[in-house]
Amino acid sequence: MKQYKVGIIGATGMVGQRFITLLEGHPWFTVEVLAASARSKGKAYEEAVAGRWFMKKPIPETLKAKTLYDAEADLDTIVSQVDFVFCAVNMKKEEIRALEEKYAKVECPVISNNSANRFTPDIPMIVPEINADHAAVIPFQRKRLGTKRGFIAVKSNCSLQSYVPALHPLRAFGMTRVLACTYQAISGAGKTFESWPEILDNVVPYIGGEEEKSEQEPLKIWGKLQNGAIVPESDGPSITTQCLRVPVSDGHMAAVFASFAQKPELKQILQIWKDFKGRAQELQLPSAPKQFLHYFTENDRPQTRLDREIENGMAVSIGRLRPDSQYDIKFVCLSHNTIRGAAGGGILMAELLCAEGYLD
């Protein structure tokens, strides 16, 4: 496989830091450029994140002294040194859309962790095990942008990475209704217990914009490519969600209820989850979990401390599958939100696009 030089835009934030730790020693990708806002320009990376390095692993020695660029003002300099960039900036949505398009238009592909472009019709929102085929929309996007190589691809909201993969292989039974209540860790808000002491012994019952994302994004993930655009699933299930912030460092859990036109047996579901593989597993991508969906029979599983780092944080943990009197089934599931849900999911998507030839 070709070796790629990559940049991280938004390198000082929590997701940017996670990109840095996950990309250390990556067999395909080498971090060449780090960029952030104008206030960090010119600083050594170690200096810029002093007192706010959130990861358990230390900063890689190779990156401690690397000088930060201004993601906007130094765009041309950044692009000249990399094959593509990962983008995880904290800006207004319209500013993010403009920035990502600027990079794409100068022929630098953008692997985005941001929500700003998730519903742009010709920008794929890819979970590699579920909708790898959506990458086929990229040539149509390039035509719109007037590029030969540049494009934008985005990953979905981090809370979806638990329950949507668990539901996906059950769609063959004609899924009609889904209710998902998500219990989301504080790292999803870019926080730690030190920076957000108010969350201790507390639960926040509302996360702005999260329920809309959780109800709408699965329909695009399950959508179809038509006339150069991804058209959200129109015959899919009705989805309703409730999203809460809980005092947990990492890991988004979901309590899920689902109904089907053809009611599956519980034994069937367990076997389907065990056997499920996607394009990421077929290609044996470096970051892909060997088994994506793990089911636990213990009544008290999954738990964030036990299960959030299964398969290096890239798999989904599922438990407590049982019948429901109002829906057909209910279960709980868990994924690591800043690994699989954010940076790791972006890296896996980039690996897929490399393997499929979109980043050559």
List keywords for this structure.
NAD binding; 2 domains; alpha/beta; aspartate-semialdehyde dehydrogenase activity; Rossmann fold; Dihydrodipicolinate Reductase, domain 2; 13 helices; 360 residues
Shape: globular
Order of helices and strands: EHEHHEHEHEHHEHEHEEEEHHEHEEH
Number of H- or I-type helical stretches: 13
The first-level CATH class name of the largest domain = Alpha Beta
What is the CATH topology of the largest domain? Dihydrodipicolinate Reductase, domain 2
Task: Please describe what this structure looks like.
- With 360 residues, the chain is of the alpha/beta class.
- The chain contains 13 helices and 14 strands.
- The model has no long low-confidence stretch (mean pLDDT 96).
- The longest helix is centred in the last third of the chain and has 17 residues, at 339-355.
- It folds into two domains: 2-156 and 340-354, NAD(P)-binding Rossmann-like Domain (Rossmann fold), CATH 3.40.50; 158-333, Dihydrodipicolinate Reductase, domain 2.
- Helix 1 links the parallel strand 1 and strand 2 (29-36).
- The strands form three sheets. It has a six-stranded parallel β-sheet, sandwiched between helices.
- Helix content is 29%, strand content 22%.
- It is globular, with a radius of gyration of 20 Å.
- It is an enzyme of class 1 (oxidoreductase).
